[in-house]
Specification:
heterodimer; A: 109 residues; mainly beta; 6 strands; 31% strand; globular; B: 153 residues; 2 domains; 1 helix
Chain lengths: 109, 153
């Protein structure tokens, strides 16, 4: 199994509610940051956005790939449907990982 | 190769992860506050993808992106966004897999978080790393400063 699939698999076992862990979270220069409503796919640990189901066809973010035929934006009920929050700085560790912090560490000679 | 425990005066504060029993493992180290977004209209999203997945799949195929299965298409219902990260994958079969790195964050709740990373290859055994930007990473909403993490499907 590739390293990006191990990463996703191991974190999904421990944190199933947190979704698909991306090995490469950066959208790079080709894509916008991920948004609710994005339609895309994950390849080699990176999310690739095609279009956004909540946005109209003529939205500037659709210039790269366009939208599917007969595209009509999804209008959820209620219209104010996105809940936001903050996750404090942390580390998410899969089962079997132990953590140590401090000034001492190892190095090879 | 011999290993010694040492103290390096110039090191940043260190964190170490050890994966025992020759098994797979993963760590996502998030040094700064992470923004979460989730739709509460999960039912509407579910019905929408069922209704449109055929057209979306055909669209993706026409783009020539190598998408072979309808199941590869994702509709994002929630996500976490971070401005920096250190991702670790522990590979199977290493008896003493370990990763150590230095991380220092200043102004973590301010407008311009300053992140310093310190990675060296000799502190990585049986694992792979991928880490995000350092320096000032602002709280803006456009790339490349704001990064995506973990879309929920």
């Amino acid at each position: 199994m590739a390293h990006y699939d191990i990463f996703r698999e191991q974190l999904a076992i421990k944190y199933p509610a947190y979704g698909h862990a991306l090995w490469e979270p950066s959208p790079g220069r080709l894509y916008s940051p991920v948004e609710v409503g994005d339609v895309g796919y994950v390849r080699e640990g990176k999310f690739h956005r095609l279009f956004n189901a909540l946005l109209p066809a003529d939205h500037p973010s659709h210039r790269t790939f366009g939208v599917p035929e007969y595209h009509v934006p999804l209008v959820p009920n209620p219209s104010e449907h996105i809940d936001v929050g903050i996750l404090k700085p942390s580390h998410l560790c899969s089962h079997g990982i132990s953590v140590t912090t401090g000034e001492s560490d190892f190095h090879a000679k | 190769m011999a290993l010694t425990v040492s103290h390096r005066p110039n090191d940043l504060p260190q964190v170490s992860y050890v994966c025992t029993k020759r098994q797979r493992g993963a760590v996502s180290f998030l040094p700064a506050p992470v923004q979460r977004q989730d739709t509460i209209a999960r039912g509407d999203f579910g019905q929408w993808i069922i209704k449109h997945i055929g057209i979306w799949f055909a669209f993706a195929r026409r783009l020539g992106l190598g998408i072979e299965q309808m199941e590869d298409i994702i509709l994002v219902t929630g996500c976490h966004r971070t401005r920096s990260w250190a991702n670790v994958t522990f590979l199977e079969g290493h008896t003493d897999a370990q990763v150590s790195f230095g991380a220092e964050v200043t102004d973590a709740d301010g407008p311009g978080i300053d992140i310093k990373w310190q990675f060296t290859p000799e502190r990585v055994r049986g694992a792979l790393l991928n880490w995000g930007p350092d320096g000032k990473v602002c709280r803006c909403t456009r790339p490349p400063e704001q990064r995506q993490l973990q879309p929920r499907i």
